Amino acid sequence: MRLMLFTNDVPVLARYYVDTFGLSYLGDPEDTGWIEVDAGGVRLAFPGSMARKALGGKIVFFADDVVETRQQLMERGIEVGAVQSFRKLAYCDFSDPAGNRVQISNRP
């Protein structure tokens, strides 16, 4: 499975996900037209501005401990919203440099 996130700066957005979540590059990390990274079971693809702009969406990453993961992200300089809770569900939201919505959730 591949999830595409459109951006005008392919290397910057790909590096953000590699650095933030410890993902691995699949191919040339300096390609300005298309980079993919391995997100374990799914490939995140970052096509450049020549690709059709997608509408909306959100990437959700699983974390056993949302509070701890949020703290780690904030220590890396990422602005993360407050942890929200509903019954056993915990999550928090933020945006990547291209404005795509990202969420950390304890729901697998």
What does this structure look like?
The protein has 2 domains: 1-48, Roll (2,3-Dihydroxybiphenyl 1,2-Dioxygenase, domain 1), CATH 3.10.180; 57-108, Roll (2,3-Dihydroxybiphenyl 1,2-Dioxygenase, domain 1), CATH 3.10.180.10. The strands form 2 sheets. Strands 1-4-3-2 form a 4-stranded mixed sheet, covered by helices on one side. A 4-stranded mixed sheet has the order 5-8-7-6. The chain contains 2 helices and 8 strands. 20% of the residues are buried. The chain has helices at 10-21, 66-75; strands at 2-4, 24-26, 34-38, 43-47, 58-62, 84-86, 89-95, 101-105. The protein is 20% helix and 33% strand. A hairpin with a 5-residue loop joins strand 7 (89-95) and strand 8.
Descriptors for this entry?
2,3-Dihydroxybiphenyl 1,2-Dioxygenase, domain 1; 108 residues; alpha/beta; four-stranded mixed beta sheet; elongated; 2 helices; 33% strand
